[in-house]
Write a structure and sequence with these properties.
alpha+beta, HIT family, subunit A, binds zinc ion, binds guanosine-5'-monophosphate, 5 strands, globular
């Protein structure tokens, strides 16, 4: 837990968050500024600044985030039409909250390459 980290504070319940799912490893909340009809964030409970900090010990955690993201996309009804999972790593890639998280977006056509 980092007192200065927004996602740690949401996980601790100090800041409100629209939670869809919680388990012992991660929480899933709706993005406050959605970029698609469904835009959720899969956030590990453990504070880790970005994917750059992940080690081999975190491989199960990273797999869990992806599997939870797929399940949420399924629950939201986007498994068939498609959805996008994104991890922005570093400010240059658009990361603005420095607590690792997976974006899951669905409900509209997605272009490639992303901006
Ligand atoms: P990043 O830019 O780091 O990849 O993603 C951070 C995401 O967190 C952004 O999509 C942003 O809209 C979202 N966000 C920022 N502040 C809050 C907040 O207070 N609550 C929620 N639910 N999402 C937030
Ligand atoms: Zn944090």
């Amino acid at each position: 837990m980092s007192e200065s980290c927004l996602f740690c504070r949401i996980i601790a319940g100090d800041v409100p968050g629209d939670m869809l799912h919680q388990d012992e490893v991660c929480v899933v909340l709706r993005d406050i500024n959605p970029q698609a009809p469904s835009h959720v964030l899969v956030v590990p409970r453990e504070h880790m600044e970005s994917l750059n900090e992940a080690s081999h010990r975190d491989e199960a955690l990273l797999g869990h985030l992806l599997r939870v993201g797929a399940r949420i996309a399924n629950d939201e009804g986007y498994a068939e039409d498609g959805y996008r999972t994104i991890i922005n790593t570093g400010a240059g890639a658009g990361q603005s909250v420095f607590h690792l998280h997976l974006h899951v977006l669905g409900g509209r056509p997605m272009s490639w390459p992303p901006g």
